[in-house]
Amino acid sequence: MTEQKKPPYGIIAILFTGAFVTIFTQTLLNIALPEIMADLNVTPSTVQWLVTGYMLVNGILIPASAFFIQRYSNRSIFILAMSLFSLGTLLAGLAPTFSILLAGRMIQASGAALMMPLLMNVILAAFPVEKRGSAMGVFGLVMVVAPAIGPTLSGFIVEHYSWRVLFFIILPVALISLALGIFKLKNLTFQDRNISLDKPSLVLSSIGFGGILYGFSSAGTMGWDNVAVYGTIAIGVVSLIVFIFRQLKLKEPLLEVRIYKYPMFALSSVISITLSMSMFSAMILMPIYVQTIKGISPIDSGLLMLPGALVMGFMSPVTGRLFDKFGAKVLAIPGLAIVVATTYLFSQLSLETTYFEIMAIYTVRMFGISMVMMPVMTNGLNTLPMKAYPHGTAINNTLQQVAGAIGSAFLITLMNTRAESTGKDLAMSGAAPESIKNIAMLDGINFAFFVSTFIALIALILALFIKKPVRPASEAEKAIVYKQKEVTE
Questions:
Q1: 388 class by beta-carbon count within 10 Å (0-12 exposed, 13-18 middle, 19+ buried)
Q2: Which of 242, 315, 446, 465 has its CA 20 to 30 A from that of 371?
Q3: DSSP structure class, residue 486
């Protein structure tokens, strides 16, 4: 892999287009699930697989992306990813039955899983260390705005048209992106044709990450006492431990876990995981509060979160440039302080809290997150030698998926447990039955946000130890000695 003297903006624009449409699809179906249930005559637990299955495929394939990015050209990977994504989109849009819709959705996910790691690696290869913040900031815009627009657009379309229109809207964009990739995309990264895929590692990775993701994602609906929940988590954890030990022994690991020997990468990874867990609290708990307790419609619920996502998208390039100038620590500390403060404010919600108060707190919270996420991640990646970039991006993206699933399950469990306890206390005190449910649910949500405040506080404390990379990645590559096979240029 080699850094480019002049960044190829045209090529990166093509990759951004593909990344936007694939990331956009992640949240596109969330609001449309009730309509799909009614149309295809399936149960809530069945239709949820359209979301869970998509996430599982991502969790299984993203760890393997490091191998594909090292072995094949970015052009080949992009064409394969967008071909799979387009095929899955077409199949889902035409699906006569739920099983075919699910198959199309998972084919979609298999293409989408490769796009984020691919784009991040191309950015790292194309931009020198001192300009990566700005580039990664633009990438952050795509990563945040795309999934934020999904629910809002989905709510509007489902209210006026068939859910199938959702797929036919994004299909032309995907096909245009694919055509541009075929005719215009050039390769920017170096390939090692001799690198081999360790199949046992791929199996262990799939079972490990897949089991953990499935178990924690299912806990909210199936309950922690269900064997499908604790059984898959246990199998996933054991497989993941075996996977890690195997990587440490291999000369060509599927995921180079030894990069955690770089202190700043390890620190940035832990901060990102912690922040992801806290960030998901608002993404999961807010829709429950505004729709169940406040009675706000799904469309207005999506619109409530839109300003925050747009602010975060607008700020991503700005914080990227500030990162290039001042470093991650200057941004992360005030950003995380804002996250801690706004998360605490969410723990004080009441039945009288207004729509615009919620919108304002959420928007300020997303402003704080925009100051942290990409700068901290980029700071960590900048400490790695260039040939470790695919492993660093794969590990970061995978752990964010896992952290999101664990954080969501943990907070939903806290909310439900607290709500049940409060409901029993209210019933014993003689409160009106019609008010018990909402008051108990509100108390559960507030308690979950209160715990999430301490999770964000941990990230803030860790941010105090952030330092700039001692050496640029090119120099670090000359100094570090890997146990894995050396890549020759």
A1: buried
A2: 446
A3: P
175 pLDDT band (50/70/90 cuts)?
A: very high
Count of residues making up the chain: 489
Instruction: Please state, in angstroms and rounded to a whole number, the distance separating the CA atoms of residues 271 and 409.
Output: 19
Give the relative orientation of helices 49-61 and 389-428 as an angle to the nearest 10 degrees: 150
Rounded Cα distance between 373 and 15, Å, is: 21
Nearest-5° angle of CA 49, CA 55, CA 59?
135
What is the pTM (predicted TM-score) of this model? 0.79
Which pair of structure tokens corresponds to residue 394?
């794969």
Helices (H) and strands (E) in the chain, counts: 19, 0
Does residue 229 contact residue 187 with C-beta atoms inside 8 Å? Answer: no
Residue that is written with structure tokens 């660093």 in the block = 392
pLDDT in tens, 283-322: 778 777 887 788 877 677 777 878 887 888 788 888 888 9
Which pLDDT value is given to residue 3?
46
Kindly report the number of other CB atoms within 10 A of residue 487's CB atom: 16
- Two tokens at 240? 């993941």
Query: How far is Cα 434 from Cα 442, in angstroms, rounded to an integer?
Result: 14
Residue 361, C-beta contacts closer than 8 angstroms, at least 6 positions apart: 342, 345, 346
* 477, 272 Cβ separation under 8 angstroms: no
Based on its alpha-carbon atoms, the radius of gyration of the chain, rounded to whole angstroms, reads 22
Q: How many CB atoms sit inside 10 A of residue 266's CB?
A: 14
Q: Give CA 79 to chain center in angstroms.
A: 22
Chain-centroid distance of CA 488 in Å reads 33
Distance between CA atoms of residues 149 and 249, nearest Å: 44
> Angle at the Cα of 79 (from 73 to 80), degrees rounded to 5?
90
Model pLDDT, residue 472: 46
Say what the pLDDT of residue 278 is: 78
Written as one letter, the residue type at 424 is K
Distance CA 290, CA 354 (A): 10
| Cα 431–chain centre separation | 42
Q: Are 8 and 186 in contact (CB under 8 A)?
A: yes
Per-residue pLDDT tens over the stretch 400-454: 878 877 887 788 888 888 888 888 888 887 766 667 888 888 999 999 999 999 9
**Among candidate residues 337, 395, 375, the one with its CA nearest the CA of residue 469:** 375
